Amino acid sequence: MESSIGIIISLIMAIYLFIDAPKHNKSRWLWAILGLIFGPIAVGIYLIKTGRKVLGWIITIVAILLYILFIFLIVVAAFLFSTGGAF
Q1: pLDDT at 6 over 90
Q2: pTM for this structure?
Q3: Sequence spans of domains, the chain
């Protein structure tokens, strides 16, 4: 269920980029593929490049921070799993 939500969100971002890119003379296929693969980071960079800088920077920074937090939690969980939960 959780992975399907992520796929649906990535598809929504890719569709948005596919529709909006030609309005700013950008390649619709390039931005749709980037949106599908990289998700919110691609949308943030797209918004920065099309002049909506404040929203673009907010989305990019929040996405990067969430990715860093996710990686940190995976590292902590792997460490706890390998040590049996004891410090």
Answers
A1: no
A2: 0.81
A3: 2-83
